[in-house]
């Protein structure tokens, strides 16, 4: 069966970005000029996904509005001949989007469970806005390609520094079925560096079979007293095979302030409108911040 549906959980509290996220979903925070959730929607579409469900919390309106037509704005831009801006505003409206509310943020697993009726009995992908991925073949598409041969759940993973394993779900790999596609013995949520079975960390893309919902319905809260998707995947792996695909492209972690800032800089350095000015600014700032460093290299 073909994978056609994606679920984007966007109902978390976003506490790492307070106060910005007091009244706004963190998925609406822009990287230069585009909300992170738009990058995710674009990855889904370029992978061939046809229907997208966004799981929202209290800050649902701005996300819904972002992907809807804004007649007043469009009329204004049209009358002023601002066709480039008009194109940017219109390009977000032609997407098959659905919304559902997670009334209490009981964890990522619980957010995914809200998609049960939307997904039905099909394989689907889960895409998190915390990670922006850059690769020739979009990571979601890579997972979909794997599914065509494995017909099983496949989770995207990436090597992280050993001292950072406690920030991630980590896999215990058990050999590769082909280059970069691992069998998984078990999944461990946020292990300490000296207890981690590997440094292959789960990043924000999952291809899941619909049996995950049955597991999630019976999943007890785990770390942080939240219903963890990693725990449910570990349980799913006990009844059917779950694979891990190693991502070798570039990952931008926008889930915390530091990653968000560095991603904004890197994307800014590629943005046609500001890249030259930003580059100049960074060089000048570097000289200001570390004048002696620069002298040393002269
Ligand atoms: P995070 O743990 O990164 O998001 O969850 P968070 O809880 O909003 O962030 P902090 O830690 O408080 O800063 C990963 C993804 O899962 C969604 C989030 O919106 C994010 O995209 N999520 C998390 C939900 O949709 N519901 C939840 O109950 C928890």
TrEMBL record:
Pathway: Carbohydrate metabolism; nucleotide-sugar metabolism. It catalyses: alpha-D-glucose 1-phosphate + UTP + H(+) = UDP-alpha-D-glucose + diphosphate. It comes from the Bacteria. Pfam families: NTP_transferase. Keywords: Nucleotidyltransferase, Transferase. Its EC number is 2.7.7.9. It is an enzyme of class 2 (transferase). Transmembrane segments: none annotated. Residues 5-259 form the Nucleotidyl transferase domain. GO terms for molecular function: UTP:glucose-1-phosphate uridylyltransferase activity. InterPro entries: GalU_uridylyltTrfase_bac/arc, NTP_transferase_dom. Belongs to the UDPGP type 2 family. This is UTP--glucose-1-phosphate uridylyltransferase. The lineage of its organism: Bacteria, Bacillati, Bacillota, Bacilli, Lactobacillales.
């Amino acid at each position: 069966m073909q994978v056609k549906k994606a679920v984007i959980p966007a109902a978390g509290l976003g506490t790492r970005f307070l106060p910005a996220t007091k009244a706004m979903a963190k998925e609406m925070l822009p990287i230069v000029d585009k909300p992170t959730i738009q990058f995710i929607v674009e990855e889904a579409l370029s992978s061939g996904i046809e229907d997208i469900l966004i799981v929202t919390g209290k800050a649902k309106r701005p996300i819904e509005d972002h992907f809807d037509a804004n007649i007043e704005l469009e009329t204004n831009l049209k009358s002023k001949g601002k066709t480039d801006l008009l194109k940017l505003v219109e390009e977000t409206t032609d997407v098959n989007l659905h919304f559902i509310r997670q009334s209490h943020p009981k964890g990522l697993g619980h957010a995914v469970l809200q998609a049960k009726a939307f997904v039905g009995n099909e394989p689907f992908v889960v895409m998190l806005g915390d990670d922006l991925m850059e690769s020739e073949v979009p990571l979601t598409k890579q997972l979909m390609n794997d599914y065509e041969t494995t017909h099983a759940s496949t989770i995207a993973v990436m090597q992280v520094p050993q001292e950072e394993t406690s920030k991630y779900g980590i896999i215990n790999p058990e050999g590769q079925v082909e280059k970069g596609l691992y069998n998984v013995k078990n999944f461990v949520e946020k292990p300490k560096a000296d207890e981690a079975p590997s440094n292959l960390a789960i990043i924000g893309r999952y291809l899941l079979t619909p049996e995950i919902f049955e597991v999630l319905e019976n999943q007890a809260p785990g770390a942080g007293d939240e219903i963890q998707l990693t725990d449910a995947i570990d349980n799913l792996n006990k009844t059917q095979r779950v694979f891990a695909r190693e991502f070798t492209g570039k990952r931008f972690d926008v889930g915390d302030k530091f990653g968000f800032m560095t991603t904004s800089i890197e994307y800014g350095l590629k943005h046609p409108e500001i890249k030259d000015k930003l580059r100049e600014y960074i060089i000048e700032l570097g000289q200001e911040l570390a004048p002696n460093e620069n002298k040393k290299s002269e």
